Amino acid sequence: GQAAARLAGTPGAAPLQASHAPGTPLRVGLVSGDLRNHPVGYFLQAWLKLLDPAQVQLHAFATHTEADALTQALRPCFASWTSIAALDDARAVQCVRDQQIDVLMDLSGHTAHNRLALFARRAAPVQVSWLGYFATTGLQAMDYLLSDWTCSPASSAERFSETVWRLGRTRLCFAPPAEAPPVAPLPAMQRGFVTFGCFQTTSKLNDAVLAAWAGILQALPSARLRIQSTRLGNAAEKAALAARLAALGIAAHRIDLHGRASRPAYLAAHAEVDMILDTFPYPGGTTTCEALWMGVPTLTLAGDRLIARQGAGLLAAAGLGDWVVDDVPTYVQQAVRRASDLPGLAALRASLRERVAASALCDARAFALDMAQALEAMARGEPAPG
User: How far apart are CA 313 and CA 170, in angstroms?
Assistant: First the structure.
């Protein structure tokens, strides 16, 4: 929007000469304020360390000073780590150029701690947006946006000012949480009723989502709904959501609302739910992957843009493409059908962690190879795969 239009007119965006010398490692810079305990950090930790430093040499440009245990785990993956949080745009651009970066990657888009002005000023010969944002940056100087074929089919090209470069398998690589407890048995087998779950932030619970959930619960009179979100620790937020659900005919005794939990407790809470109902048009990301690791499949609705197709992309990469639907009536129908097949749900749950571990979603080595090949091809000026 306006921010992109302002940045697009930033001075200093003249093209740079490609600097990569054949036979030397490709110098790749990552610009992010989220190299820490954050979804961006989670989707970096599995594969970064598997890049061959003789092929790709990584340089971090941190735009935020916060650091934690995940920051410390990521640091050894980088040949250099520079904080540009306190630098103005001109000095930060010079900092990137001094490192002779061949490909500069933006991991923020229009989110907190972004430094898109560096990209508008053409800090590196090749510039790519990936991971932390789900739409175009709108910058003329941003050459590529990294995605995959499920999240960004060919028909979506006009949504981006960048050239969409699609990785062959998946745009995201998941690192399973080390603190995850074992997968629990299907709770419905003991209880005799199905519990649908959602671990999304409450801002994603729009009227269309709640109406679809009401339709599902109406069709399954014994089913329950368990929603866990940080904001539900607030009594007023909790009461407001309960009132919205009541207005849709969902009785209070069928709903369990939970606030923030520690990470181990949040993972353990998946033992309470039989399947996840995804939000739309803003589906889950990290929460979907973590639920799969805990043996809980997510039913997702694929929309018409990158963010709305994220759930579809993750489930396709995990080998669960049959849990993706294209419209609300099918979403309701599939939720009812899946919930009516407890043996099927129990069998899937028992095998899911093993299946996901062996899938493209968790194949960090393959992802590192795909990423390295894509970055090298961009640096050579090859056309995007199509």
Answer: 7
- Rounded CA separation 92/82 (Å): 10
Tell me the pLDDT tens digit for each residue of 42-80. Answer: 999 999 999 999 999 999 999 999 999 999 999 999 999
Q: Are 108 and 133 in contact (CB under 8 A)?
A: yes
Tokens of 293: 């690791």
Nearest partner of 259 among 279, 237, 282, judged by Cα: 237
Check pLDDT > 70 for residue 9.
no
Beta strands at 275-277 and 195-198: parallel, antiparallel or unpaired: parallel
Cβ 162 vs Cβ 136: under 8 Å: yes
Sign for the CA dihedral angle at 214, 219, 221, 222 comes to: negative
CA distance 299 to 244: 22
Provide the strand spans (E) within 33-162: 56-62, 80-83, 103-106, 126-129, 144-148
Q: What is the mean pLDDT of residues 91-112?
A: 97
CA–CA separation, 50 and 205 (whole Å): 37
Per-residue model confidence as pLDDT tens digits over 113-160: 999 999 999 999 999 999 999 999 999 999 999 999 999 999 898 999
Per residue in 306-322, pLDDT tens?
Answer: 999 999 999 999 999 99
Measuring CA to CA, how many Å separate 49 from each of 8, 75, 189, 341, 370? 34, 10, 41, 41, 14
Question: How far, in whole angstroms, is CA 189 from its chain's centroid?
Answer: 32
Contact 284, 312 (CB under 8 A): no
DSSP string across 55-73: TEEEEEEESS----HHHHH
Tell me what percent of the chain is helix, strand and coil, each rounded to the nearest 5.
Answer: 40, 15, 40
No. of helices (H) and no. of strands (E), the chain: 14, 13
Closest Cα to residue 295, out of 246, 373, 357?
357
Can you give the pLDDT at residue 32? 98
* pTM listed for this prediction: 0.92
Which helix (H) or strand (E) segment holds residue 371: the answer is helix 364-379
